[in-house]
Amino acid sequence: MRDSSFLAEQNAKAIWHPMAHPGNMRSHPPRVIMKGEGVTITDLEGRTVLDAVGGLWNVNLGYSSEPVKKAIADQLALLPYYSGFKGTSTGPAIELSHALCRFFEPEGMARVFFTSGGSDSVETALRLARQYWKVRGQHDRTKFISLKRGYHGTHFGGASVNGNATFRRNYEPLLPGCYHIPTPHVYRNPFGETDARRLAGLCAAALEDEIVFQGPDTVAAFIMEPVLGAAGVVSPHESFMPLVREICDRHEVLLIADEVITGFGRTGAWSGSRLWNVRPDLMCLAKAITSGYFPLGAALVGGKVAAAMESNQDSFGSIGHGYTYSGHPVGCAAGIAALEETQRLKVHENAAARGCELRAALEELKARHAVVGDVRVQGLMGALEIVSDRGAKTPMAAEGMSRIQAGAYEAGVMVRISGCNVILSPPLVIDAGDVRKIAEAVDAGLRVAGRE
Ligand SMILES: Cc1ncc(COP(=O)(O)O)c(C=O)c1O
Fold first, then answer.
1. Domain segments of the chain: what residues?
2. N or C: which end of the chain has fewer CB within 10 A?
3. How far apart (Å, rounded) are the C-alpha atoms in residues 316 and 137?
4. What is the CB-side half-sphere exposure of residue 268 using CA atoms within 13 A?
């Protein structure tokens, strides 16, 4: 690799970064991360901090999982790539598909379609949902319904069901036939409802209303994150997803669980669907499927959809969709090792226990800092919503958020800023001392913001 002065000098010059303004990158160059070890990262200046972002919600095992690294190295030496398109397969793809079906058996998952990441998995699930209805002879069932505030990646399909204008406006017109309902977000919702259970009922009723309004025989699927991540960690009341399942069943609408963040233990359960005791029809996975060590994703297909697709013999049955890297053998080898480690370490239990500590620590910060409007934690998905006026819930301006992030980094912890939320999604292998360190660093960041 080129020396560090080259990297510092060329930083953000020839690269455009996702979710950033290309013209602003040179005046605000990103931190260059050079090394990861345990739950820490080290930047170009040699500064080592605790990574409370966990890469991007995905490095669940931390940066030093030797079994995953070894699996990748061994597979690279044996077979760095072969196609998974019709006619060929590879050992790791077969093994991981088998392991995933067993792991997600409680969710009712029966088949795996590999992808290269989360947006691909969402795209795949949306396409398979439409194809399922063609196979069933209900050709008009093409529409999708989703949650305002939801995030489902950046492909045209995912952007069309996304519920955040930031990811939509510049790319419109999006896919026709996509509709949105309110999110059961207690802190900010259009009903002014502060009771979580009642709010869940109102949002579920809005879903049923929309399905009936559109005509149930025109709706292919409802897609939701069991716990919303990019929206700033919105964990609906426990009654919400079961109500959604009931409504989908009543109108024969498929339920797609986008578990790109919530899969593999982050919520404190093995999946968000399992957390809420719901069996979806399709699941979208990525991120922690390899703990971020290799790009890989998967759309999982439940028994009902799988049976209909596999028994169909007319022209609608064949899947005209896939990626060169579907079932990449190195990615799948990483996935097998990551899943074994994930289970061996029972990371979901640690996520639940550390999540409770994190919630208590963040609530304590809320009591001391007027700028903290709301605290939301589910397992090791955490968010502090920062406001400049608590009563009016005025979102903190971007400069204020940057100061909080810089203050926390100065205090030894990397946090992520998304809108007016400080997002915490550390590796699931952190310990109680790490939780304290995260809270202290956020405290330091908030003190900086409070002084301005
Ligand atoms: C719920 C959800 N779905 C889909 C995606 C898209 O995944 P990717 O960035 O791997 O394409 C994300 C990414 O954060 C996500 O949080």
1. 31-61+346-451, 68-344
2. N
3. 9
4. 17
Does ligand 1 lie within 6 Å of residue 230's CB atom? yes
Name the percent of the chain lying above pLDDT 90.
95
pLDDT (tens digit per residue) in 49-76: 999 999 999 999 999 999 999 999 999 9
Listed as own residue / partner, the contacts of 312-315 with beta carbons closer than 8 Å and 24 or more positions apart are 312/135, 314/135
Structure tokens at 9: 């000098």
Asked whether the domain spanning 68-344 has the same topology as the one spanning 31-61+346-451, the reply is: no
Q: Name the residue of 161, 261, 323 to mutate for ligand 1: max ligand atoms within 8 A of Cβ.
A: 261
End-to-end CA distance of the chain: 40
pLDDT band per the 50, 70, 90 thresholds, residue 452: low
Of 17, 151, 266, the one to substitute when testing ligand 1's pocket (max ligand atoms within 8 A of C-beta) is 151
Q: According to the model, what pLDDT value does residue 446 have? A: 97
pLDDT for 407-449, tens place per residue? 999 999 999 999 999 999 999 999 999 999 999 999 999 998 7
The pLDDT of residue 451 is 66
Q: How far is the CA of 261 from the centre of ligand 1 (A)?
A: 7
> pLDDT (tens digit, 9 = 90+) per residue, 182-232?
999 999 999 999 999 999 999 999 999 999 999 999 999 999 999 999 999
With a 6 Å cutoff on the Cβ, whether 122 touches ligand 1 is: yes
Ligand 1 atom closest to Cα of residue 121: 4
Predicted pLDDT at 24: 87
Structure-token pair, residue 177: 């036939």
Does 152 sit in the ligand 1 pocket, CB within 6 Å? yes
For 68-344, CATH gives 3.40.640.10
Question: Which numbered atom of ligand 1 lies nearest the CA of 295?
Answer: 10
Number of H helices, E strands in the chain: 14, 16
Q: Which residues contact 98 (CB under 8 A, 6 or more apart)?
A: none
